[in-house]
Structure formats: C-alpha cells, structure tokens
Amino acid sequence: MPGMAEGFHVLLSSVPQIGRVEWIGVRPARREPMIVVDSVEACEGRGLTGDRFSGGASSKRQVTLIQSEHLPAIAQLLGKNRIDPALLRRNIVVSGINLLSLNGAQFTIGGALMEGTGPCHPCSRMEEAFGPGGYSAVRGHGGITARVLSGGIVRVGEPVSFVRRSGGASEKQNELAL
C-alpha cells in the first residue's frame, strides 16, 4: 500500500514542537561522576568538549539525550519523588519535544546541528545508581544518541528544533520515530 507508506513519510517529515535544553552534564572519565555545566561546546564529529565519549566521526554515540518528561516516570517506577539527571549518565536533558521523533532526523540544539542515531538503552550502571530494578525502570525511557554534524555552543535554556529527516535514516530509525 504505497499510500500508507507515503502518509507515514509525511508524518515523519514534520515536528512542529520546539524543545528546550533543561540540563547539561559531561562524563570526564569512565565511572567518574558527571560534571554539571550551564553550557558546552559540541564539536563536529567528536561530541561534547570534556565528555569521555567524544571520539571518532563515525561514532553514533557522540551525545546522549533524555527527555525531561520521562524523569518523573522513572522516579515513580523506582518509588522515589525525583531523580538526579546525573545518575542517568546522559549528556543533555530536553523538554517539550518528543526525542524519538528526532531519531533518524537532523535537529538543532543551541548553536549545534545534530543527527539522532538511535535509542540510548540503559546499562547495568542503572542498578548501581538506583538499586535493584534501576535497569528496568529506565528501559523505554533512556532517550536517544546523536552525532554532531556541525559544532556550536549548547546552553541551558536554548531551543531544540527539528530540521529534517536524515537522508540516510534506516527503516529501523523511521520505525522507532513512529
């Protein structure tokens, strides 16, 4: 049914909401505490200055993002009032835009252009950070990974905006964006 497939492509080609950067953190080294910052430089093909994951241009995990609206759900699943974003080990917390809609898409975040490259699944560190059940509580709420296409400064309070679907978005990325 070509009509249905075309309809999905039309739906995926527009994300009218504009999000907002709520929190930024970098991981200086493996197992080290996150450093919370008000702004950070996103470097093309490398990631965030000061983050241990900044690396090669082919890396799909240069930056990790999580949706602010998911933090209360994770907290509730853990039986807590709130959780510290630093414990989730994601770089940027955003609000007001569905991050899954940015998977397989290009988007601006502050002065940088990024591309959503896939879901950011939780790791076993969630059990260490939150205790038994931490991993399961974050499943489905872990956000997305991204690569930096064009560098710039990202600041708390700045907008997050959809630009366009990536030409190389895989069927799996498009499926996850639905």
Task: Give the key terms.
178 residues; alpha+beta; M1 Pyruvate Kinase, Domain 3; 7-stranded mixed barrel; 3-stranded antiparallel beta sheet; 5 helices; 11 strands
Give the arrangement of secondary structure elements.
Layout: H1 2-12, E1 18-26, E2 35-37, E3 39-43, E4 47-48, E5 63-67, H2 71-78, E6 92-95, E7 105-109, E8 112-119, H3 125-130, H4 134-138, E9 144-150, E10 152-155, E11 159-165, H5 171-177
Parallel strand pairs: 5-6
Antiparallel strand pairs: 1-2, 1-6, 1-11, 3-4, 3-10, 5-9, 7-8, 7-11, 8-9
Could you explain how this protein is built, in words?
With about 180 residues, the chain is an alpha+beta fold. It has a single domain (about 1-175), classed as M1 Pyruvate Kinase, Domain 3 (Beta Barrel), CATH 2.40.33. It is about 20% helix and about 35% strand. The strands form 2 sheets. A 7-stranded mixed β-barrel has the order 1-6-5-9-8-7-11. The chain has a 3-stranded antiparallel beta sheet with strand order 4-3-10, with no helix packed on it. It starts with a helix and ends with a helix. The mean pLDDT is about 85.
